[in-house]
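Sample entry (216 residues):
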Amino acid sequence: MNNEFFDNMFHNAPIMAILRGLGVQRTLEVATMAWDIGVTSVEVPIQTSEDLRTLETLAQAAHERGLVAGAGTVLNVIHVLQAKDCGAAFTVSPGTNLEVIQACADAGLAHLPGVATPSDIQMATGQGLQWVKAFPASVLGTSWLKAMGGPFPGIKFVSTGGMDAHNAQEFLDAGARVIAVGSALEDPRQLGLLSGLLRERAEVPGDGLKEAANGK
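Predicted structure, serialized as C-alpha coordinates:
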Protein backbone atom coordinates (compact mmCIF):
# COMPACT_ATOMS: atom_id res chain seq x y z
CA MET A 1 0.00 0.00 0.00
CA ASN A 2 2.64 2.52 1.03
CA ASN A 3 4.53 2.94 -2.24
CA GLU A 4 1.46 2.65 -4.46
CA PHE A 5 -0.32 5.21 -2.30
CA PHE A 6 2.36 7.84 -2.90
CA ASP A 7 2.71 6.84 -6.55
CA ASN A 8 -0.97 7.66 -6.95
CA MET A 9 -1.06 10.75 -4.77
CA PHE A 10 1.90 12.40 -6.46
CA HIS A 11 0.94 11.27 -9.96
CA ASN A 12 1.10 14.38 -12.18
CA ALA A 13 1.33 16.65 -9.10
CA PRO A 14 4.97 17.23 -8.05
CA ILE A 15 4.18 19.70 -5.26
CA MET A 16 3.11 18.98 -1.68
CA ALA A 17 1.78 21.64 0.68
CA ILE A 18 2.94 21.84 4.31
CA LEU A 19 0.65 24.05 6.37
CA ARG A 20 2.29 24.54 9.76
CA GLY A 21 0.64 26.32 12.68
CA LEU A 22 -1.87 28.34 10.66
CA GLY A 23 -4.97 27.45 12.65
CA VAL A 24 -8.13 25.89 11.30
CA GLN A 25 -9.53 28.72 9.19
CA ARG A 26 -6.30 29.87 7.56
CA THR A 27 -5.26 26.27 6.89
CA LEU A 28 -8.51 25.66 5.03
CA GLU A 29 -8.06 28.86 3.04
CA VAL A 30 -4.49 28.05 1.98
CA ALA A 31 -5.34 24.40 1.35
CA THR A 32 -8.18 25.48 -0.91
CA MET A 33 -5.81 27.70 -2.89
CA ALA A 34 -3.40 24.79 -3.19
CA TRP A 35 -6.11 22.36 -4.28
CA ASP A 36 -7.44 24.88 -6.81
CA ILE A 37 -4.08 25.10 -8.63
CA GLY A 38 -3.65 21.33 -8.71
CA VAL A 39 -1.71 20.51 -5.54
CA THR A 40 -3.24 17.24 -4.41
CA SER A 41 -1.33 16.51 -1.19
CA VAL A 42 -1.56 18.67 1.93
CA GLU A 43 0.18 17.97 5.23
CA VAL A 44 -0.44 19.51 8.66
CA PRO A 45 2.38 19.08 11.18
CA ILE A 46 0.85 17.93 14.48
CA GLN A 47 2.63 19.51 17.42
CA THR A 48 -0.26 21.04 19.41
CA SER A 49 -3.88 20.26 20.23
CA GLU A 50 -4.86 23.03 17.81
CA ASP A 51 -2.92 21.25 15.07
CA LEU A 52 -4.95 18.10 15.71
CA ARG A 53 -8.21 20.02 15.38
CA THR A 54 -6.88 21.57 12.19
CA LEU A 55 -5.91 18.20 10.75
CA GLU A 56 -9.31 16.70 11.53
CA THR A 57 -11.08 19.59 9.79
CA LEU A 58 -8.70 19.51 6.84
CA ALA A 59 -9.10 15.74 6.41
CA GLN A 60 -12.86 16.16 6.17
CA ALA A 61 -12.55 19.01 3.65
CA ALA A 62 -10.12 16.95 1.58
CA HIS A 63 -12.44 13.96 1.65
CA GLU A 64 -15.25 16.13 0.25
CA ARG A 65 -13.00 16.86 -2.73
CA GLY A 66 -12.08 13.22 -3.21
CA LEU A 67 -8.60 13.89 -1.81
CA VAL A 68 -6.70 13.03 1.36
CA ALA A 69 -4.75 14.90 4.05
CA GLY A 70 -1.64 13.92 5.96
CA ALA A 71 0.00 14.48 9.33
CA GLY A 72 3.52 15.84 9.56
CA THR A 73 6.22 15.95 12.24
CA VAL A 74 5.15 12.47 13.34
CA LEU A 75 7.79 11.49 15.87
CA ASN A 76 6.36 8.55 17.80
CA VAL A 77 3.61 5.95 18.04
CA ILE A 78 1.29 8.34 19.89
CA HIS A 79 1.49 10.76 16.97
CA VAL A 80 0.63 7.94 14.59
CA LEU A 81 -2.50 7.08 16.57
CA GLN A 82 -3.48 10.75 16.78
CA ALA A 83 -3.05 11.12 13.02
CA LYS A 84 -5.26 8.08 12.43
CA ASP A 85 -7.95 9.39 14.78
CA CYS A 86 -7.96 12.75 12.95
CA GLY A 87 -8.58 11.11 9.61
CA ALA A 88 -5.11 11.39 8.10
CA ALA A 89 -4.31 9.02 5.25
CA PHE A 90 -0.54 9.42 5.43
CA THR A 91 2.17 10.54 7.83
CA VAL A 92 5.47 12.35 7.38
CA SER A 93 8.47 12.37 9.72
CA PRO A 94 11.67 14.46 9.86
CA GLY A 95 13.71 11.28 10.33
CA THR A 96 13.57 7.51 9.93
CA ASN A 97 12.18 5.62 12.91
CA LEU A 98 11.46 1.90 12.72
CA GLU A 99 8.80 2.03 15.45
CA VAL A 100 6.94 4.77 13.61
CA ILE A 101 7.17 2.87 10.31
CA GLN A 102 5.71 -0.25 11.95
CA ALA A 103 3.01 1.71 13.77
CA CYS A 104 1.93 3.32 10.49
CA ALA A 105 1.80 -0.09 8.81
CA ASP A 106 -0.32 -1.41 11.67
CA ALA A 107 -2.64 1.60 11.45
CA GLY A 108 -2.98 1.38 7.69
CA LEU A 109 -1.29 4.74 7.09
CA ALA A 110 1.20 5.39 4.31
CA HIS A 111 4.45 6.79 5.73
CA LEU A 112 7.07 9.15 4.36
CA PRO A 113 10.26 9.00 6.50
CA GLY A 114 12.82 11.78 6.53
CA VAL A 115 16.34 11.00 5.29
CA ALA A 116 19.61 12.95 5.25
CA THR A 117 22.24 10.20 4.92
CA PRO A 118 22.78 6.98 2.93
CA SER A 119 22.21 5.06 6.16
CA ASP A 120 18.77 6.66 6.54
CA ILE A 121 17.87 5.72 2.99
CA GLN A 122 19.12 2.18 3.45
CA MET A 123 17.06 1.81 6.63
CA ALA A 124 13.93 3.04 4.84
CA THR A 125 14.43 0.84 1.79
CA GLY A 126 15.09 -2.08 4.13
CA GLN A 127 11.48 -1.65 5.26
CA GLY A 128 10.30 -1.74 1.67
CA LEU A 129 9.78 2.02 1.34
CA GLN A 130 10.58 3.71 -1.96
CA TRP A 131 9.32 7.21 -1.15
CA VAL A 132 11.35 9.28 1.34
CA LYS A 133 11.55 12.90 2.45
CA ALA A 134 14.92 14.56 1.77
CA PHE A 135 15.25 16.91 4.75
CA PRO A 136 16.46 19.59 5.09
CA ALA A 137 16.68 19.74 1.31
CA SER A 138 18.05 23.27 1.01
CA VAL A 139 20.95 22.28 3.26
CA LEU A 140 21.55 18.92 1.57
CA GLY A 141 21.49 20.58 -1.85
CA THR A 142 20.90 19.34 -5.37
CA SER A 143 24.32 17.67 -5.56
CA TRP A 144 23.29 15.40 -2.67
CA LEU A 145 20.16 14.33 -4.54
CA LYS A 146 22.18 13.51 -7.63
CA ALA A 147 24.75 11.58 -5.58
CA MET A 148 22.09 9.47 -3.82
CA GLY A 149 20.57 8.51 -7.15
CA GLY A 150 23.63 6.36 -7.89
CA PRO A 151 23.49 3.78 -5.08
CA PHE A 152 19.69 4.09 -4.71
CA PRO A 153 18.29 4.29 -8.24
CA GLY A 154 14.78 3.29 -7.18
CA ILE A 155 14.38 5.86 -4.41
CA LYS A 156 11.83 8.67 -4.84
CA PHE A 157 12.59 11.91 -3.03
CA VAL A 158 10.21 14.53 -1.70
CA SER A 159 12.49 17.54 -1.16
CA THR A 160 11.45 19.39 1.98
CA GLY A 161 12.87 22.36 3.88
CA GLY A 162 13.70 25.69 2.28
CA MET A 163 11.76 24.91 -0.88
CA ASP A 164 9.83 27.57 -2.79
CA ALA A 165 8.75 28.52 -6.30
CA HIS A 166 12.20 29.89 -7.10
CA ASN A 167 14.24 26.73 -6.45
CA ALA A 168 11.57 24.09 -7.15
CA GLN A 169 12.59 23.50 -10.75
CA GLU A 170 16.26 23.17 -9.78
CA PHE A 171 15.49 20.38 -7.31
CA LEU A 172 13.11 18.63 -9.68
CA ASP A 173 15.79 18.69 -12.36
CA ALA A 174 18.27 17.22 -9.84
CA GLY A 175 16.09 14.18 -9.29
CA ALA A 176 13.44 15.11 -6.73
CA ARG A 177 10.03 13.70 -7.62
CA VAL A 178 8.13 16.18 -5.45
CA ILE A 179 8.81 19.56 -3.84
CA ALA A 180 7.18 20.33 -0.48
CA VAL A 181 6.41 24.02 0.07
CA GLY A 182 4.90 26.00 2.91
CA SER A 183 4.94 29.79 3.06
CA ALA A 184 5.29 30.01 -0.72
CA LEU A 185 1.60 29.18 -0.96
CA GLU A 186 0.74 32.40 0.88
CA ASP A 187 2.71 34.55 -1.58
CA PRO A 188 0.52 35.44 -4.60
CA ARG A 189 3.57 35.77 -6.86
CA GLN A 190 4.94 32.37 -5.87
CA LEU A 191 1.49 30.81 -6.07
CA GLY A 192 1.34 31.86 -9.70
CA LEU A 193 4.77 30.38 -10.39
CA LEU A 194 3.85 27.10 -8.71
CA SER A 195 0.63 26.95 -10.70
CA GLY A 196 2.64 27.42 -13.88
CA LEU A 197 5.05 24.66 -12.89
CA LEU A 198 2.14 22.28 -12.33
CA ARG A 199 0.66 23.14 -15.70
CA GLU A 200 3.99 22.47 -17.38
CA ARG A 201 4.56 19.18 -15.57
CA ALA A 202 1.14 17.61 -15.72
CA GLU A 203 -2.31 17.34 -17.16
CA VAL A 204 -5.40 17.52 -14.95
CA PRO A 205 -5.06 14.75 -12.30
CA GLY A 206 -7.03 11.60 -13.05
CA ASP A 207 -7.75 8.23 -11.57
CA GLY A 208 -4.58 8.22 -9.45
CA LEU A 209 -6.17 10.71 -7.07
CA LYS A 210 -9.22 8.56 -6.60
CA GLU A 211 -7.03 5.57 -5.84
CA ALA A 212 -5.08 7.59 -3.27
CA ALA A 213 -8.30 8.77 -1.66
CA ASN A 214 -9.44 5.17 -1.43
CA GLY A 215 -6.16 4.10 0.15
CA LYS A 216 -5.16 1.86 -2.77
